[in-house]
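Here is one chain, start to finish.
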Amino acid sequence: MANTDIGHGGREAVDIHPPTMAERLALVRQWFSNAWYELRKSKTALAGFLMLSVLGVFLILTPWITTWDPVKQDYRARLAPPSAEHILGTDRLGRDIYSRLLWGGRRLVTISLLAVAFGLMIGIPYGVLSGYFGGWTDTVGMRVVDGLLAFPGLLLYLLIVTLAREWKLEGIYNDLILVFALGFAFFPEVARLARGSVLSEKKREYVEASLVMGEKDSYIALRQILPNIVSPLIVNATVRLGFVILIIAALSFLGLGSPPPTPDWGADLAAARDYMEKAPMIAVWPGLAICYTVLAFNLFGDGLRDILDPRLAER
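Its structure:
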C-alpha cells in the first residue's frame, strides 16, 4: 500500500512500500498458473514438458536411485539379462546398464545445457549490438558470422576435440572443451537470429521515445529491445538442445568423447556393436535414451514456438 502526504510546496509525496512476501508468492503462483494454462493449450508442448519432467526427476535423483557403481566391472556377470539385481542387465564388462544410463544422462544433459547457455551468452549481445548500431559494425560483425556459418559444424567440433586430446586435456577439462566447442558453434546462429529480430524491433515507437529522452544506446539495446525478442531465442535454444545431445553422442560414438570408463550413451552404443547378435539389449537401452531425450526437447521446443508466436496461436 502507498501512504501519501503533502510536502513542502504543495507537492504530493508518495511512500511506496516494497511488496510483501505474500504478494511475491501470489505473483509467483499467478505466473505458474498462466504458464500451465499455456502449456495445456499446446499438446506438443505439454507432451515435451512431461517427458522432460520425467527425465529431470530421474537425473536429479540418480545418486539415490542407483545402487551400482557405473564403472565397476564384474566379469562373472558379463552380458547378464535384466534381473532383480540388475534392472536392465549388464554390458560386456559386467557393468550395470541402469546405473550407466542415469549417470551418463546427467553428464550429457549438463554439458548440453552449458553449451547452449554459453552460445546464448556470447551470441545474444553480439547480435543485438550489431543489429542495433548497424553501419560498419553490423557489416564486419555479420561477415564474421557468415565465415563461421560457412565452416561445417561437425568439422569444428572434431578440430577442437582433437586438439584437446593432443594437449592431453582429460576429465573436467575435456568436458569444458566440449562445452566451448558446442557453444561456440551455436553462437553464429544465435547472433544472426538476434540481429534479425533487432532490425525489426528498433523501428518501434518505444525505441524512438527512448532516444528522444536521451537514453544511452547500450541501455536501449540490452534493457529495452532485448526483453522483447527473447521468445524466438528461447525456442531456438530449446530445439538446439536436442541437436547438441545428438552431436555429443556422435562424438562419443566416434571415440572423441570422454575417455573410458566414463558413463556415456554414445560410447556405450559404440561398444555394444560387437554384441548386438548375442545381447541386443545392451545397444537398445542407450539408443532409446538418446531418442527419448532428443524427442522430448524437440517436442517442447516446437510447442513453445506455437505458444510464443502469436501468428501460429491464432490458427
